[in-house]
Amino acid sequence: MDRNEIERCDTVEVHRELLKSVSGKMPKEEELYDLAELFKVFGDSTRIRILFVLFEAEVCVCDLAEALNMTQSAISHQLKILKQNKLVRSRREGKSVFYALADGHVRTIIDQGREHIEEE
């Protein structure tokens, strides 16, 4: 059998008690949708790169653009998405706007993702 082939049952046997238990623990559809939308945000390598910079320091758009060799416009677009999804926060200081991780959950999500992809 090919390693990537999906294995299937040889017969159809529905395990009703198991399904009853599972369905009682399933989150509401709206929560599942919101969770899927959150994980989509992590599906862009530029946004991941921005988060890695923010792991180290609170920085302004100019610094992010320089660090990632991108335009401020491109960085701002990605920051807007990250902010809408509550992954980063901003604060104004004079003429500069500084960005930081919204909370420790962001680092935890990335760290656990890294652990997962490094497993054998």
Chain-wise SSE layout:
Blueprint: H1 16-25, H2 29-41, H3 45-56, E1 59-60, H4 61-68, H5 72-84, E2 88-93, E3 96-101, H6 104-118
Antiparallel strand pairs: 1-3, 2-3
Helix pairs in contact: 4-5
Question: Can you tell me about this structure?
Answer:
This protein is mainly α and 120 residues long. It has a single domain (16-118), classed as Orthogonal Bundle (Arc Repressor Mutant, subunit A). The protein is 59% helix and 12% strand. It has 6 helices and 3 strands; from the N terminus they run αααβααββα. The protein has a 3-stranded antiparallel β-sheet. Strand 2 and strand 3 (96-101) form a beta hairpin. The model has no long low-confidence stretch (mean pLDDT 92).
List keywords for this structure.
three-stranded antiparallel β-sheet, Arc Repressor Mutant, subunit A, 120 residues, elongated, mainly alpha
**What is the count of structural domains?**
1
Q: How many β-strand stretches?
A: 3
Indicate the radius of gyration in whole angstroms.
20 Å
Question: Which stretches are low in confidence, meaning pLDDT under 50 for 5 or more residues running?
Answer: none
| CATH structural class | Mainly Alpha
The CATH architecture is: Orthogonal Bundle
Assign a percent range to the helix content. Answer: 55-70%
Envelope shape: elongated
Widest sheet: strand order? 1-3-2
Provide the residue-averaged pLDDT.
92
Q: What's the helix count?
A: 6
Indicate the structural class: mainly alpha
